[in-house]
């Protein structure tokens, strides 16, 4: 019998400003904060709009069919946080959402050969259940 | 726009002996650096009426403690949580307080057991960034906790857009390692680097291998700033503060997704305007070099080479002695040691005083130098010094 190992990596900390994002992630959905005054998406979410300073904000559900392109990325060969020693090399990307290219979401590109990653390639969002009640948005290569 | 008009000068610089393991506290190291800077200036601790220091995560000692054990009671102490542009920005604060007539002589220091104590390059505490910063929860779960990863993200995009190659990064490292061979106090003195070795070294965080990353050590540095009129009473040759510019850009402290610009791009215009000089007037440089690419990016920002031509600029040997911009001539943080930017400023002061005159380490007859600080892509501080 294989013993279930506990999830060792940092789990996103929910705060009054960001819990809508992470609550949606737990349901395998992407939800973004948006400024009600200037209509700019706000990511990461916060207590006011970094573009215009307005405290009036709303949340927009983008659903579960999320595509993006690699804007930049790195390949890490050493772990800097607990748990990543099992996942080397680690690919970390900032990916521009196809639906809103100004929004760039940082995550790992999982289940990929780092040699296949380059700037501009298409990605698809997936959600990995990391504990019984938490899920983490991740990217996978969008295979054409 | 502030006009600095050479109203203040750096009159003393000092450091302790850098090492992997100091076996002592930041307070002891800071005392050594401060006493050496005072001796360099020919000043007594009682001449100091301001002391300032910066630290990260409480890795230093408070200015008040330093004052206590120097045996003085300055009017003013200030401790800030800072980064790679804090040397320049605290000097700016000192200049402002001196010009306002509140203070006369200020000592600024950075002391850190950067190897045996808190080592930034190993990454930050898993919970610290999440609890401290709204963006922290969006980077830590993905394993991004080290500056090599954060700056690597910028580097890869910038290299993709401008054609900078791994070899170009190597030329920065090799140039600075070459300088370190002339500096007996450089940690990598006796360990020159060639391109073959550089290219054969595996990456830690792409595009950076160990040579692209600064050498984190236990060390302390100190700088003394005073008014130009008081500088006349000092033992050393004064190096005047001719211009200064601070700048922030990006939203968020660490969740950076807009990698097309850096704060240094915007600091540059203000900097040259405040000093009344142009990039081509600069004869010697201290370019913040926590990572090799950070040097390349700032050469573009501060107008030493055009975007897309920076790689060729360093490949042609321009950062070396005899090049158009001899830079980080003590070896820089890549090979002398990492005092969070301050050791590069110490070297610039010594170059402009012609301390190395008659040796091959001296940038001959240099009169005008630049020091650039990079706390990150989002925060810059830079100054121009002249003798």
Number of helices of chain B: 13
> What gap, in angstroms, lies between the N and C termini of chain A?
38 Å
Proportion of beta-strand residues of chain B:
15-25%
Distance between the termini of chain B: 23 Å
Apparent shape of chain B: globular
Number of domains of chain A: 2
Number of domains of chain B: 1
Helical content class of chain B: 25-40%
CATH third-level topology of chain B? Peroxisomal Thiolase, Chain A, domain 1
Mean pLDDT value of chain B: 94
Number of strands of chain B: 11
* CATH class type of the largest domain in chain A: Mainly Beta
Reading the helices and strands of chain B in chain order gives: EHEHEHEHHHHEEEHEHEHHHHEE
Shape of chain A: globular
Q: Output the number of helix runs of chain A.
A: 1
Backbone CA Rg of chain A: 16 Å
CATH fold naming of the largest domain in chain A = OB fold (Dihydrolipoamide Acetyltransferase, E2P)
Uncertain segments of chain A of ≥5 residues (pLDDT<50)?
Answer: none
Strand arrangement in the largest pleated sheet of chain A: 6-5-4-7-8
Detailed description of the structure:
The complex is a heterodimer of chains A (144) and B (387). Chain A is built from one helix and eight strands, in the order H-E-E-E-E-E-E-E-E. Chain A is mainly β. In chain A, strand 7 and strand 8 (135-141) form a beta hairpin. The longest helix of chain A is centred in the first third of the chain and has 8 residues, at 19-26. The mean pLDDT of chain A is 94. Chain A has one helix at 19-26, and strands at 30-35, 41-42, 57-63, 67-76, 90-97, 104-108, 122-129, 135-141. Chain A has two domains: 14-64, no CATH class; 65-144, OB fold (Dihydrolipoamide Acetyltransferase, E2P), CATH 2.40.50. A five-stranded antiparallel beta sheet of chain A has the order 6-5-4-7-8, covered by helices on one side. Chain A has a three-stranded antiparallel beta sheet with strand order 2-1-3, covered by helices on one side. Chain A is globular. Chain B has 387 residues and is α/β, with parallel strands linked by helices. Chain B has one domain: Peroxisomal Thiolase, Chain A, domain 1 (3-Layer(aba) Sandwich), CATH 3.40.47. In chain B, a hairpin with a 2-residue loop joins strand 5 (203-205) and strand 6. In chain B, helix 1 crosses helix 2 (63-70) and helix 6 (166-180) packs across helix 10 (292-301). Chain B has helices at residues 26-41, 63-70, 86-99, 128-132, 147-162, 166-180, 195-200, 228-231, 263-275, 292-301, 310-315, 332-335, 342-352, and strands at residues 8-15, 50-55, 76-81, 105-113, 203-205, 208-209, 218-227, 239-248, 284-287, 368-376, 379-386. The longest helix of chain B has 16 residues, at 26-41. Chain B has a nine-stranded mixed beta sheet with strand order 3-2-4-7-1-8-11-10-9, with helices on both faces. A two-stranded antiparallel ribbon of chain B has the order 5-6. Helices cover 33% and strands 19% of the residues of chain B. Chain B is globular and about 50 Å long. At the A-B interface, strand 4, strand 5 and strand 6 of A face helix 5 and strand 5 of B.
